[in-house]
Hints:
Low-confidence stretches: none
Number of helices: 13
Largest sheet: 9 strands, mixed
Order of helices and strands: EEEEEEHHHEHEHEHEHEHHEHEHHEHEEE
Structural class: alpha/beta
Helix content: 25-40%
Radius of gyration: 20 Å
Number of strands: 17
Strand content: 15-25%
Distance between the termini: 24 Å
Amino acid sequence: MTDLLLRNARPWTPGEPLAITDIAITNGRIATPAGDAAQVIDLDGAIVLPGFVDAHCHLDKTMFGGPWTPNTGGRTLEGRIRNGEGRREELGLPNPDYAANLLSAMVSHGTTHVRSHIDIDPEVGLGGVEAVREAAARLAGKVDVELVAFPQGGLLTRPGTAELLEAALKDGVEVIGGLDPAGFDRDPAGQLDLVFGLAERYGAKIDVHLHDQGLLGAWEYELIIQRTKATGLAGRVTISHAYAMGGLEPDHQRRIAEGLRDAGVAMITCAVGGAPVIPVRLMDEVGARLAVGNDGIRDLWTPYGDGDLLRKVNQVAFRDRLVADEEIELALAAGTHGGASVLGLEGYGLAIGCNADLVAVDADAPAEAVVSVPQRKLVVKGGNVVAHNGTIIG
């Protein structure tokens, strides 16, 4: 017997035309319709997308749903880092209630998987890990959360941080993070030795924040590509932000993109402020993996954001001047299949046998959904309806 039958749906798969069909869900997976259905929902021609994957956010930093807090972080990287650390105690951060508020908003917008960087330093210890795990537990069954042990305040320059990162991995955190190995830690070889060494020792994935721009950033990409090949960690390494990529000359961009593809290194773009966006069309053309994340949301770094990954996909498409439907769909693919690839999700998609994590939107075309950012009509996680018309169920 079918558990849930979605009638008159138009499932979207990148590169394939839309067509009206029924989607059957049995035991949490998309199945071939069989027999009666326990629950039937008529989508009336709505487009069905696989659940959104927010591949880069900071749940431990958010004040989502809390009182308005004016931003005092300034515009420099170091200034924002020090401001964020300096006001944590005053504002009660990290806070599981705020993190749960944000996760709830994400669920209502159709996000089914999240990767969150968690600040690790001698002052906060593993407090952020505990807070975000508590928040994720409250939303269990509605969204899956993967954690990154992130040395936001520096790694080599912050005594005791390396030991805490290792403690986080021992405690089950899935990803080890890095931060501007050259521009912030000023020892790229030393930081990458440590990060890749911990990843190898604990079977962890790697996600490096890389804000450094120009040729310095490009050189760091090459270092990461080389390390990935040398350690055999293809498919497990990601460069977040990668601002330099969007500002390089076209030939240089292509060489980097091809190097990423060959080494199995992905990039994540968040369309932050005026920073360059990773070139979406080029990444697709050469077959390099690209994902999308919201980055900071209503925190001490930025007062903006609502947790809607589709809105962030819209910003990526706009910033990268994607105008043809097929181009806009590349950004949508990065916010869905691209993120799933980065997180290593198995059974992702809308094919028979895939996990039933999906979101329905009213739009004539996928590109229109990206441009108009409509309210989510239905969100399904693990075969269960978890949100309807922007409201969480249960």
